[in-house]
Design brief:
Length: 84
Amino acid sequence: MTKFFEKFRLLLWALAGILIGLYLYGLFLGLYGALELGLLSVVCLVLIVLFAIHELRLRRELRAGTHHDEYASETHAAKERRGF
């Protein structure tokens, strides 16, 4: 069940990234102004802030080494499946 939630979480971050990318793409091309899309601008701003917080937490956890053993065992298992 946790693998399902992990994949769902990754899917949500991917969709958020796509939404932000499309929003910024249109903004930089000048297709619309930030004030013209009021609600979408607010949603994208919130998603950018949440993504930044997520990345900072992830970097801090990786630097602290709290999940190093889990990542190392997953990497080792993946290498074993590939035959390395």
